[in-house]
Write a structure and sequence with these properties.
By secondary structure, this protein is mainly β. It contains five helices and 50 strands. The termini are far apart.
């Protein structure tokens, strides 16, 4: 009897367990999110479940999403900036593959007094654990006034807090006290080592070819590495797979043209986008300058092919070159080449794979001719890169990224040849950089989100050259490594964590810590950067730079999320920082080992960043302000005391506004103000053999004058048919003609012998522009 009772009880328990298991059975709903009009995959789309607001997943950068749901009926709510909200009803009784189409907001009629991006996730700043991050809308960039009328991602990010311009018209920037080289700039995953044209007045990025751009200031997830300060991740358009489109623009000194369309409709597509300046054509009208050269060009190419519903391949490339020449006397050209072959694979409803093979090359060449004297200088940095990245949607609470990266670097230092006595040659230097990483975006509770991970980085010096070791600039050892042999290897663990706690419906607090290391270093003695600045790798003398950053933030939204206020404070501690010793000989006409001119020490940067945004209505825009300090302490410089870093600016203010007057006219304006860069001015002088020698004391103890200017632009979009759209943009750079200092040089005053005068050079007072843009 007892045995029968136990059997019945066991059977009943098994049945109950089986029933409970069936009741709790979950299924996967996964797929990709696309633009309904052109088939472009969309990045970072929010997918919510109406019946359970706690379920909210975000599509990865390849448009893939996955969520887990028990059996039942649900309504998915899909939202994305610039697109209409979309609802999809589903019945979940098995794993479902569901691709989601979104329609751009511009595809529907809207009243002019209701200029609202309906699909925008307006409270993202309150829910995301990612700190110091901004995603830029390419459509919004088009409206902002910029130098020469060129819409420019690099110029736009300099209007955000914590990101500071390196000079008048320059596309170079520093982030939270970091140097220019401490920013990782990616174009379709390929590193870009010089992201500027015409000495910084244009960037390498043609906005017509771009889909998305985001910047992260120091607290980047573990899949990014190799730089201390920031990541600027730029992605090209995939190309319209439904219809052919042509768009472009004609400006005063440059023009651009893009063509995109399907190769096989809804299965494969392409985009080709080119740009060129033509200032050199105006030079040819003057016989004194007809042999001079001054132009740049760039070309973006991309194609993709869908092998089947789970596999797609992409091939993208960038080619850009600057050419500057004065007849046969002086010629220089520099440029970037990148290529990315990428394979996206949906391994399962929860696991997504991206495999990338990447090539990147940057080089410059200089030629000088004078009678029988010939001098040529060249340098190069070339990378071969393999990346394997997995996204695992472990559940509605976990989105896990893990993978590896391997880069083979070839750095050719500045080498010269010709008939001059200054000729010298240098061997290329080889290195191998590897990393493995894991990162989890964890929704711990309805209010708390945590992003945490770690990166293990390894950098190996490879043979093929003689390596010197210096202590405070003094040679202490040298070693020759045969090609293929391993030399010094540096290993670093880089933990990262950030968290967001939502206090209530309108406010949240954030905090984060991250460690980053950097093994490639740019040697430059200017703020704005020059094409001839030299890249070097970590070696026996040069150690990896390391930065530890902590940050705290507060966000609050107002008026139904139409207004937004974000504040962050940060402190960054930096090790193995590099600077030139006093009196360093760094001219390119010397064959001396540049490492002998370097000194090493520590740095610190801290500050407050504020940004207030108005995101809807006729008038939109933002105000950003940064209060910061950046210092270095290096033995052998400034009496071994702390001194201002070159990029130190106490105050930095940007005001940006766009006003939609009516369906045809819109106006934009911006005002910027910043403290002048830290510089070293002479404190005395003496005569030697008839020449004046200036004396200098404390490093970077002086300031350039404060920088400020105002720019305005107006865009006119006449009524057009559905197939053809055209617009005119009129603008003026530096509206009130401020003569901002580009350089200040000191010389003997011929009017007052024995005294010194400062000579300021200013580049631009008023620069008007007019551009015609078209699309069909």
């Amino acid at each position: 009897m007892q045995t029968s009772f136990l059997k019945i009880t066991a059977a009943t328990a098994a049945l109950c367990f089986s029933t409970l298991a069936m009741a709790q059975q979950t299924y996967s709903v996964s797929g990709t999110v696309k633009d309904k009009k052109n088939g472009e995959l969309l990045i970072g789309v929010s997918v919510k479940v109406s019946e359970d607001p706690s379920i909210n997943v975000v599509a990865n950068e390849y448009g893939f999403y996955s969520l887990s749901l028990p059996e039942g009926n649900y309504t998915l709510i899909i939202s994305y900036p610039g697109y209409q909200d979309f609802e999809q009803k589903i019945n979940v009784d098995q794993n479902i593959k569901l691709d989601l189409p979104l329609l751009p907001s511009e595809s529907v009629e809207k009243a002019i007094d209701e200029v609202v991006i309906t699909g925008i996730k307006k409270d993202k700043n309150l829910t995301s654990a990612q700190m110091g991050a901004e995603t830029l809308s390419i459509k919004n960039i088009e409206k902002l006034p910029v130098l020469f009328g060129e819409k420019d991602v690099m110029k736009t990010i300099q209007l955000l807090p914590g990101i500071k311009s390196n000079g008048e018209g320059s596309s170079g920037f520093s982030v939270r006290g970091g140097a220019t080289d401490q920013n990782l700039i990616l174009l379709d995953e390929a590193p870009v080592y010089n992201a500027s044209h015409l000495l910084g007045f244009f960037s390498t990025f043609n906005s017509d070819a771009l889909k998305d751009a985001s910047i992260i200031k120091g607290n980047s997830p573990a899949q990014y590495g190799g730089r201390l300060s920031s990541v600027l991740d730029v992605k090209m358009k995939d190309g319209n797979n439904k219809d052919y489109n042509v768009n472009g623009g004609i400006g005063l000194i440059s023009s651009r043209l893009s063509v995109e369309g399907p190769i096989q409709k809804e299965k494969s597509s392409f985009i080709v986008s080119g740009r060129r300046t033509y200032a050199d054509l105006f030079l040819k009208t003057n016989k004194d300058y007809k042999d001079n050269k001054l132009y740049f060009y760039d070309l973006n190419l991309k194609a993709n092919y869908q092998i089947n519903e789970n596999n797609r391949i992409y091939l993208s490339g960038y080619f850009g070159r600057d050419v500057l020449g004065l007849g046969d006397t002086f010629n220089t050209d520099w440029g970037n080449t990148t290529a990315t072959l990428r394979w996206n694979s949906i391994i399962s409803s929860k696991l997504f794979s991206n495999t990338s093979f990447i090539y990147s090359n940057y080089d410059y060449k200089i030629s000088l001719k004078n009678d029988d004297t010939v001098f040529d200088l060249n340098s190069k940095i070339r990378d071969w890169n393999l990346k394997q990245d997995f996204t695992w949607f472990a559940g509605n609470k976990h989105s896990v990224r893990f993978g590896l990266q391997s880069i083979y670097h070839t750095l050719t230092p500045s080498s010269a040849s010709g008939t001059t006595v200054s000729s010298f040659a240098r061997n290329p230097r080889y290195s191998w950089e590897n990393a493995v990483y894991i990162n989890d975006d964890y929704k711990a509770t309805e209010k708390l989100t945590i992003n945490y991970g770690a990166r293990l980085s390894m950098f190996s010096v490879l043979g093929g050259d003689t390596f010197n070791t210096y202590e405070n600039g003094v040679l202490t050892d040298n070693k020759f490594l045969e090609k293929g042999k391993f030399g010094k290897t540096y290993v670093n663990i880089e933990p990262r964590i950030s968290a967001n706690y939502r206090i209530n419906e309108v406010s949240s607090v954030k905090g984060g810590y991250s460690r980053n290391t950097q093994n490639l270093h740019l040697l430059s003695n200017s703020n704005s950067g020059n094409p001839t600045d030299q890249w070097i790798g970590s070696s026996y003398t040069v150690k990896p730079e390391i930065a530890d950053q902590i940050s705290l933030g507060y966000s609050r939204n107002f008026n139904n999320n139409n207004y937004e206020l974000n504040a962050e404070v940060y402190y960054k501690d930096m090790k193995n920082q590099i600077d030139f010793k006093n009196g360093a000989q760094i001219g390119f006409d010397t064959g001396a080992d540049v490492e002998s001119e370097l000194l090493f020490g520590k740095g610190r940067a801290y500050g407050l960043e504020l940004i207030a945004k108005k995101k809807s209505g006729r008038l939109t825009g933002w105000i950003s302000y940064t209060l910061s300090k950046t210092e270095r302490k290096i033995n052998g410089i400034n009496n071994n005391e702390w001194y201002n870093a070159r990029m130190d600016k106490t105050h930095d203010l940007s005001i940006v506004a766009t006003y939609q007057l009516n369906p045809k006219w819109s106006f934009s304006g911006l005002f910027v103000y910043s403290t002048g860069n830290a510089v070293t001015f002479p404190t005395g002088k003496y005569e030697l053999n008839g020449q004046t020698i200036f004396q200098y004391s404390n490093r970077n103890a002086d300031r350039m004058p404060a920088y400020h200017r105002m720019d305005l632009s107006a865009t006119y979009e006449p009524s057009t048919n559905k197939r053809f759209r055209g617009s005119w943009t009129f603008g003026i750079y530096n509206l009130y003609g401020r003569e901002n200092a580009y350089t200040i040089n000191f010389e003997n005053n011929p009017d007052r012998p024995g005294t010194t005068r400062a000579m300021q050079t200013s580049l631009f007072r008023w620069v008007p522009n007019i551009t015609y843009n078209f699309k069909f």
